[in-house]
Model the fold of this input.
Amino acid sequence: MQATGGTLGTAAFARFRALVEESLLGFLSPDVCPIPAPLRDAMEYALTSGGKRIRPVVLLSAGAAVGGEEKDLLPFACSVEYVHTYSLIHDDLPAMDDDDYRRGRPTCHKVFGEAVAILAGDALLTEAFRVMGESPLAGRDPAKAVRASALLARAAGASGMAGGQMMDLAPPAGEGVSAIEEIDLRKTAALLSASAAMGGILGGGSGSQVESLSRYGRALGLLFQITDDILDETGSFEEMGKTVAKDRARGKLTYPAVRGMAEAGARAESLRGEALQALSPFGGEAETLRDIVRIVATRRS
Amino acid sequence: MQATGGTLGTAAFARFRALVEESLLGFLSPDVCPIPAPLRDAMEYALTSGGKRIRPVVLLSAGAAVGGEEKDLLPFACSVEYVHTYSLIHDDLPAMDDDDYRRGRPTCHKVFGEAVAILAGDALLTEAFRVMGESPLAGRDPAKAVRASALLARAAGASGMAGGQMMDLAPPAGEGVSAIEEIDLRKTAALLSASAAMGGILGGGSGSQVESLSRYGRALGLLFQITDDILDETGSFEEMGKTVAKDRARGKLTYPAVRGMAEAGARAESLRGEALQALSPFGGEAETLRDIVRIVATRRS
Done:
C-alpha cells in the first residue's frame, strides 16, 4: 500500500474509485468467464453506470488503514460492488420498486427485459463469490478469504440486505424510529459495515480494529440512507438521475417522512459523529475513511 | 463416515436424502439467521417441496467415496440444494419460464407474489455462501472450503447455470446437438459436476479422484437433463407434478425435440455408460454414486 501509515485523504478516495472502475470488468473477462452475449451485456451495462463506488472504496480504505495490500483487497472490493449492483438491478424490477431510471439511464430491465435483468442480478451476486474464492489471497491465506466471504454473505442475505428489501416492501407494523432504523440497518448499513470489516480482516487488522471498522461502516450506512431519503424529498430528477419523491408516494417508511426534515437532519449529524468516533483508535491512516463520511454527509446526488 | 471403504448403495442414498431433508432448514433457524416473516415463509416453502435432493446426495456420496466426514460435508450439501432451489424459483417466474406448478404445488411466486419470490431466490443463493463460509470445516480447513465455494460459484454463475438459463431463454443460432449439449452442460451438468467435485475436495480426495468425480457429475448431469426432456414429452401432469410438453410449445432446444426420441434414448444410454466409466477407479465405496446413475436413468418423474 503506497501510503500505509501516512495520510490517506481525498486523493486516495479518487484513486481507489478509479482503481475499482478500471478493475470491475476484468474479473468477468471472456477468458476467465465465458458469458452468453445478452447476459454479459446486461451485467456490463449495470456495472458501468458510473456509481459512486462507496462500498468498494470503503473496503479499500479500511484495508489501507490497517496496512493491507491493495492488490489483495481489489477482488473483494469489486465483489462488494457486484453485490451492490445486483441489488439495484433486482430492486428496480417491476415486481419490486418498478423504477425506470437509475443514475440518469434506463434501468437494466428497461433495456434488456425482465428475464435478462433477473439473470444479470443473479449472475453478479454469484460471480462475487467466485471472484473472492478464486482470488490470489484466497489461495495464500484462505482463512481470511473465507471469513470475508462469509461476512459478505451474511450482510447481503436473508437477515441482511435481502431481508431489508423485504421489510422495505412490506414494512413491519408501527412507524417508530426503531422500525425505520431496523430496515435501514439491514437494507444499507449491513453491506457498508461488512465492506469496512472485510477491509480490516483482509488487511490483517486486529480484532478490535475490525470491530471499530464495522461500527464505522454501520454508522456510515445509516448516514448514507438518511441522506438518500432526505435527497429523495428535496432533490430533482436532474440532480438524482432517478425519479424522486417516489418513496413518499409509495408510503415507504423513511426517517424524513415519519419524523420530518429537521429531525432527520439532526439524526444525520449524530450519525456523522458516530462514524468519526468509531475511527478514534486510528490516526492519519484512516483519513480516507473520514473523508468518506464528509462526502456522504454533504452529497447532493 | 460409517461405511467408508465398504459398500454404499441404495440404503445410503435414502439415508443421505433423509439427512438432507432434516438439515435443510436448520442452517436458517431464527437464532442463526433472523429473517422477516414473508421472506422466511417463501424460502421454507421452496425448500420443503419434496424434491429428489439429487445434488446434495451426490455431494455426500462423493465425499463418502473418498472417506470424508459426513458432518463436514453436510453444510455444503445443503448449500448446493439452496442454490438449486433458488434457480427453480427464478426459472419459474412469469418473466422467465412462467410456470404455475412445480412438484404438484403452486410455484413460489403464485403463493407469495413475484417480489417475495425474487427475494427468496436471491436470499437462498446468498445464504448458501454464508452456510459454507460459517461451517465448522471452513474454520478448521479453510483451503478446502474456499475451493469448494469457488467451484460452486463458478458452476452456478454467468458461465455456468445462470448462463445456461440465458441460453435456454434465447437459444444460440443453429439446432445442432452441440448447441443443445452446451445449454445442458451449463444449465444442469455444471451444478451436478460441481456437487460431485465438491464432495471429493471436501472429503480429502486426491486430484485424480476429484477429476473422476467431476467427469462423473458432468455425465450424470447431461443424463439427468435428457431424461427430463424425454419425460417432458411423454409424462403426464400427475406423474411430473408440473405442466408438461411446454418445452416443445415454447420452441426450446432439447435433444428429443431436435433429434427424436430414439436418438435421445441412445444418447441417454451412452451417458449412463460414461458416468459409470468415470467411477472405474473406485470400488464399493462408490456404489451409492452408481445407484444414482441408475435412479436418474430409470426415473419416471
About this structure: The domain at 10-298 of chain B is CATH 1.10.600.10 (Farnesyl Diphosphate Synthase).
